[in-house]
Design a protein that fits this description.
This protein is an alpha+beta fold. 16% of the residues lie in helices and 32% in strands.
Length: 443
């Protein structure tokens, strides 16, 4: 006869849990990237008086006779609908317009997810959350395993020598225009030096003419854009070419080529049309070798970070047909992130693009403190990529995602929960009165 008391208590307890969740939602109504939760109830054990009977030829069937024993919390499900956009005009703040998550790593190196994009750059150049969790980057547009490398923005750019054989004075937009003055070139054949002069207006044809005039037994010609040297029935045991220019802006004394021909009549071909500035530092406009310091950064819709520096230089990442990401300067040349070394060839950089993640079942994520989630056993398959692709959503700089708490609905749910507690309290009182009546029957 006292079962009604426990049934009423189950209703009070369940509705109290609902109020607890509502209270948490309301408390986080201004929390960046917070996702509201909803409580769903389910009934508990049933007291079965009869399971029912099947109809016969003479008697109809009967339905089950059962008494419920109360309710309990069936699930607390999180609503991952996008919150509204909160404009901050702070380039460090990012809003995800879609279903993706930022990927971060905690102090133990574990992967955590977040929708809160209020990031900062620490003293070492790492992109971090307010609690110091490092934001992970990627150099792969699409990955099934994900990167574990944090984003580190170079805090200075050291403009160093080119590793390519292109003209060194046009690698960066902040380099000065070089003036190529007259220089003396020496062609050495069998130990005999033959000097000739090349100035800034020289062409390959004029260079070939100068060589033919200065050196005997050697014929210079131009074919397919290449300077070719042939030995005219002369046994050549050694060969070398060097250049000396004391007044050139970027070319010092340089050994251009050496060779040891094996037989007479060997043709030596130079594959490069340009002179390589070996061990030469490309200097900024001020004429001194220096570094430029980090100033700020911005993030594109695909998560590509562009870092800006005090002298106006900037680096970013771009995608190409090979689906790799490359650093590039504003002039379109690729640069490495550990220096930064300017090169004219494609290189795979350190991670400087925000890595995004999405899971099959967002409701399966486990919420942690600090606006974080971890991948739970029912979250399903996790995929990694970049913004604005693969359903990750695009990134909006200068904005944050507000909480998706609907205050009107929360107040309405609170009233319903309060009434549920009141009603179950009345049931409890009724059961208590019945027990009191039974106790007083014998008096």
């Amino acid at each position: 006869m006292s079962q009604g008391l426990f049934t009423a208590i189950s209703g009070i307890t369940a509705n109290q849990s609902r109020i607890d969740v509502i209270s948490d939602n309301i408390a986080n109504m201004n929390t960046t990237g917070f996702k509201a939760s909803q409580v769903n109830f389910e009934n508990v054990f049933l007291k079965t008086l009869s399971s029912g009977t099947a109809p016969t030829s003479n008697v109809g069937g009967s339905n089950p006779v059962q008494i419920g024993l109360g309710t309990t919390v069936g699930e607390i499900v999180r609503n991952f609908a996008n919150g509204s956009v909160q404009t901050t005009n702070n380039a460090n703040d990012l809003y995800i317009n879609g279903n993706g998550f930022f990927t971060l790593t905690d102090s133990e190196g574990s992967l955590v997810l977040s929708r809160a994009g209020n990031f900062r750059v620490d003293s070492q150049g790492y992109l971090t959350s307010p609690k110091g969790l490092k934001v992970l980057g990627t150099s792969d547009i699409n990955s099934t395993t994900g990167s574990t490398t944090p984003i580190k923005i170079p805090q200075s750019l050291s403009i160093t020598e080119s590793t390519a054989t292109s003209t060194g004075a046009e690698l960066l937009s902040n380099t000065a225009n070089a003036t190529i003055n007259d220089g003396t070139f020496t062609l050495t054949v069998n130990g005999t030096d033959h000097e000739f002069t090349i100035d800034a207006d020289s062409t390959l044809d004029s260079v070939a003419t100068d060589i033919n005039t200065a050196a005997t037994g050697v014929t210079a010609s131009v074919a397919s854009g290449k300077l070719r040297l042939s030995y005219n029935n002369t046994v050549v045991t050694s060969f070398g070419m060097s250049a000396t220019s004391d007044t050139s802006n970027f070319l010092a004394a340089t050994q251009l080529a050496t060779a040891t021909p094996t037989t007479a009549g060997t043709t030596v071909t130079y594959d490069s049309m340009a002179l390589t500035a070996n061990s030469v530092t490309i200097r900024p406009d001020d004429g001194t070798s220096s570094t430029t310091t980090y100033k700020s950064y911005s993030v594109g819709a695909d998560g590509a970070i562009t870092a800006y520096y005090s002298n106006g230089c900037q680096i970013t990442v771009t995608g190409d047909a090979s689906r790799e990401l490359l650093y590039s300067t504003t002039s379109g040349y690729q640069v490495r992130g550990d220096g930064v070394t300017v090169v004219a060839n494609a290189v795979k950089p350190q991670e400087l693009q925000l890595q995004m993640t999405k899971v099959t079942n967002s409701a399966g994520l486990i919420a942690e403190n600090g606006n974080r989630f971890t991948i739970g056993p029912n979250a399903g398959y996790a995929t990694f990529g970049i913004g604005d692709s693969g359903g990750m959503g695009s990134l909006v700089s200068g904005s944050l995602e507000s909480s998706n708490v609907d205050l009107t609905s929360e107040f309405a749910n609170m009233i319903v929960a309060q009434r549920g507690i009141d009603a179950n309290g009345r049931t409890f009182d009724a059961q208590n009165q019945i027990l009191r009546t039974i106790v007083n029957i014998g008096r």
